[in-house]
């Protein structure tokens, strides 16, 4: 009987989804996870019956919008607007005559017109401007097409129009040998905004970024570039998160070919490029965006109150509608194939996952993830998009911005998950800011610190970061600014012994290193913060008299040999070099960190990860000459990285050339080190 019972219990566990086997607390919700799998399979079956495959379903952009037909010699223009009464193509090619070029409605709600070269080749050409005039039961408006590839803004009227974009010579890619797995074993991500990447008070360009920023990113050791604000948005100050034209490369920074040049050059340097994609909402502007396009009040978005985000003042997609699924999936395919992006960081996932959008909700129980608050249509869409990306580019990197902790978000669909690779560790930067705002250095709780940095779901990879663009926005301050305050302007000369600056520089290094080494399986840095950029980000707006002063990066600070910013940059480079060389973030090569010692009296935290020992002293002034602690493996050790080294702006209190041999004490292996205040040491066994 005992054998039979054991066998039955074993069989029951084996029948559970891998996610549930790993986390028994999910057992009551396995029916929900399986229902999600079944719904996805049902939708995939429907799509395959309709289109042959999911990847073919995601080709709407090759039919809709403006597409050149080389066989028939002319342009097709098509628009999905099922509730519209009439559509007309207007532009400089027909004198913006709202009656001259009507479209014909198809049975599927798609309107179309063909512009033959024999009639239009001399007036509908590369750079021609156009819009679509939409007549609805509510009236008529000039609109930008939904799948518009290029929108340009009139500098005088500030009005956006579509622009025909068909250069005589196609861009020639030279990245055929670039392979993501060869260059990105673990992601070290450089989050950047092209427009604010120059030091001058203006908008930077794709070409300038390729020429000046890519060499920096490569030299600093980052292997992933995450680009913000690429999808066209009418308001520059939205940081690119209020998208109007989902298929259009932002013309503020240059042309589509110039973006392709940037990506091609990144690949030449061994850097993968991720797109910060916004499918969580859309700008509510009707003149530039999709809102109420066909006059139905919905179409791409939910109708009524459900179609508006209460906190973002934007429109919310109806993810359950097949045409919306097709629009967004086609958008993903377009960016992957047309621009050779290597993956995506999906913005605002929390808002998508729940009907309440995560607003004012504290996630404290599993019921919240699997109950009525979960948006099944959005979850289905996310499963569709991760499935599509795997079909098109198996090694692409998928990152989800979710603060709710949805179980399985970053597990394969077949295991019960949603299919992303990484989630952003959003609690980590919030913790650092809260700590610096409200707690004296002397009162830091190392047990809390350890918990925050290691508290993540087993089997789901996390992108750790001390600060991203969120922490740098006006109204908050960068870590460097929190640490240094006005000393960042007054006491950064390398010969200035100011204690506030010394404290800030020391903690900046410790915070970044412990975040990288404990917080996840990937690491992210926001442009300029690697050297302690002194100021927040504030884009031109009425409130700052349309100034670009805070929408730029002061690279000269990092390059000035007389300033201390160089020390932070040098430490960041060395930190990443060590982490990459030792595969520190690899779930298989290094695994998770193991706590060895938390000493609240001396404010010392010691742990191992992979083959490395990490010794952090957060004490404000105490240095211990003979600090003894347990190590799992006996032998000789040497220092790989020392934050107190003078080349990193430290005091040089530790001799990096020394080797340390373990000794037996109390029946265990121990090391003895000189542990100096506000210092981090990384050691390896030799």
From TrEMBL:
One of its GO terms (cellular component) is cytoplasm. It catalyses: Transfers a segment of a (1->4)-alpha-D-glucan chain to a primary hydroxy group in a similar glucan chain. Gene3D superfamilies: Glycosidases, Golgi alpha-mannosidase II, Immunoglobulins. InterPro entries: A-amylase/branching_C (IPR006048), Branching_enzy (IPR037439), GH (IPR017853), GH13_cat_dom (IPR006047), Glyco_hydro_13_N (IPR004193), Glyco_hydro_b (IPR013780), Ig-like_fold (IPR013783), Ig_E-set (IPR014756). It is an enzyme of class 2 (transferase). It comes from the Bacteria. Transmembrane segments: none annotated. Its EC number is 2.4.1.18. One of its GO terms (molecular function) is cation binding. The active site is at residues 347, 401. GO terms for biological process: glycogen biosynthetic process. Coiled coil: none annotated. Residues 170-572 form the Glycosyl hydrolase family 13 catalytic domain. It holds the Pfam family CBM_48. Belongs to the glycosyl hydrolase 13 family. GlgB subfamily. Catalyzes the formation of the alpha-1,6-glucosidic linkages in glycogen by scission of a 1,4-alpha-linked oligosaccharide from growing alpha-1,4-glucan chains and the subsequent attachment of the oligosaccharide to the alpha-1,6 position. This is 1,4-alpha-glucan branching enzyme.
């Amino acid at each position: 009987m005992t054998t039979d019972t054991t066998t039955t219990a074993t069989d029951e566990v084996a029948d559970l989804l891998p996610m549930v086997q790993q986390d028994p607390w999910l057992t009551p919700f396995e029916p929900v996870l399986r229902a999600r799998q079944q719904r996805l399979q049902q939708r995939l079956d429907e799509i395959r019956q309709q289109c042959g495959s999911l990847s073919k379903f995601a080709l709407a952009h090759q039919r809709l919008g403006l597409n050149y037909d080389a066989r028939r010699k002319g342009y097709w223009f098509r628009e999905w607007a099922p509730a519209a009464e009439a559509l007309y193509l207007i532009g400089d090619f027909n004198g913006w005559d709202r009656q001259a070029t009507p479209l014909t409605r198809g049975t599927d709600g798609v309107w179309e017109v063909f512009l033959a070269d024999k009639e239009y080749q001399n007036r509908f050409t590369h750079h021609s401007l156009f819009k679509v005039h939409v007549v609805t039961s509510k009236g008529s408006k000039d609109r930008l097409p939904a799948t518009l590839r290029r929108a340009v803004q009139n500098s005088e009227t500030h009005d956006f129009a579509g622009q025909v974009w068909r250069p005589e010579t196609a861009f020639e890619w030279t990245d055929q040998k670039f392979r993501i797995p060869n260059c990105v074993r673990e992601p070290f991500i450089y989050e950047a905004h092209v427009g604010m990447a120059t030091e001058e008070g203006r908008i930077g360009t794709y070409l300038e970024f390729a020429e000046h920023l890519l060499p920096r990113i490569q030299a600093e050791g980052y292997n992933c570039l995450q680009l913000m604000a690429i999808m066209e948005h009418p308001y520059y100050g939205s940081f690119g998160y209020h998208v109007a034209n989902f298929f259009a490369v932002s013309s503020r920074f240059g042309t589509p070919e110039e973006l392709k040049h940037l990506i091609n050059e990144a690949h030449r340097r061994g850097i993968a490029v991720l797109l910060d994609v916004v499918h969580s909402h859309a700008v509510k502007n009707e003149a530039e965006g999709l809102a109420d396009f066909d006059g139905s009040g919905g179409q791409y978005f939910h109708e009524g109150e459900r179609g508006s985000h209460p906190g973002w003042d934007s429109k919310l997609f109806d993810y359950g509608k097949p045409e919306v699924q097709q629009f967004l999936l086609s958008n993903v395919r377009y960016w992957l194939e047309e621009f050779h992006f290597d993956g995506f960081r999906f913005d605002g996932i929390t808002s998508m996952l729940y009907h309440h959008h995560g607003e004012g909700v504290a996630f404290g129980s599993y019921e919240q993830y699997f109950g009525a608050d979960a948006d099944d249509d959005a979850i289905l869409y996310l499963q569709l998009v991760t499935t599509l990306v795997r079909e098109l580019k198996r090694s692409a990197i998928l990152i989800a911005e979710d603060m709710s902790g949805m179980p399985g978000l970053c597990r394969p669909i077949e295991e019960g998950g949603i299919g992303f690779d990484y989630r952003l560790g959003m609690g980590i930067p919030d913790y650092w800011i809260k700590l610096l705002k409200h707690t004296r250095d002397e009162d830091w709780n190392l047990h809390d610190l350890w918990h925050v940095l290691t508290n993540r779901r087993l089997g789901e990879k996390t992108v750790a970061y001390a600060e991203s663009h969120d922490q740098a926005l006006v109204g908050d301050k960068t870590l460097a600014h929190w640490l240094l305050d006005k000393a960042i302007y007054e006491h950064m000369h390398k010969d200035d012994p100011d204690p506030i600056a010394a404290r800030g520089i020391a903690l900046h290094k410790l915070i970044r290193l412990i975040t990288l080494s404990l917080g996840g399986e990937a690491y992210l840095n926001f442009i300029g913060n690697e050297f302690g950029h002194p100021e927040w980000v504030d884009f031109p707006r009425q409130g700052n008299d349309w100034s670009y002063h805070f929408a730029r990066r002061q690279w000269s600070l990092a390059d000035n040999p007389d300033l201390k910013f160089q020390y932070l940059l040098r430490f960041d480079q060395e930190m990443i070099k060590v982490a990459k060389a030792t595969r520190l973030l690899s779930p298989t090569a290094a695994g998770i960190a193991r706590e060895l010692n938390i000493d609240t009296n001396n404010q010392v935290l010691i742990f191992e990860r992979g083959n490395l020992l990490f010794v952090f002293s957060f004490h404000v002034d105490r240095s211990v000459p003979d600090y003894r602690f347990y190590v799992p493996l006996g032998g000789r050790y040497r220092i790989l990285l020392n934050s107190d080294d003078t080349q990193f702006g430290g005091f040089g209190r530790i001799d990096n050339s020394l080797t340390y041999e373990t000794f037996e004490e109390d029946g265990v292996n121990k090391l003895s080190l000189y542990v100096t205040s506000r210092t981090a040491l990384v050691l390896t066994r030799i």
